[in-house]
Design goal:
By secondary structure, the chain is mainly alpha-helical. 58% of the residues lie in helices and 10% in strands.
Length: 86
């Protein structure tokens, strides 16, 4: 299965908000299946880092959490296929 992650969904993996638990559960389940491929737009990388920074500036997360999120996201990004523009 091809699973497309946009910023508004993927950010829920890192920052608690409505739907976070459901998304975390879904990704945990789906990432265990080798036939599943995860896709994102190339702009998602910049959008995610910008969202992390906004959460830090807005004091939703602290500096240590910001750094942990950036590292974890960059690791996840390594397994992402880039979606082609239509």
């Amino acid at each position: 299965m091809r699973i497309f992650l946009d910023t508004s969904a993927w950010i829920k993996y890192f920052i608690a908000e409505a739907g976070s638990h459901d998304l975390q559960f879904f990704l945990a389940q789906q990432s265990q299946k080798p036939e599943n491929l995860f896709y994102a737009s190339v702009v998602t990388y910049a959008e995610m880092h910008a969202t992390f920074t906004r959460a830090w500036k807005g004091r939703r997360i602290n500096e240590a959490e910001l750094e942990q999120m950036r590292i974890a996201f960059d690791q996840q990004w390594l397994g992402i296929h880039l979606a082609e523009a239509a």
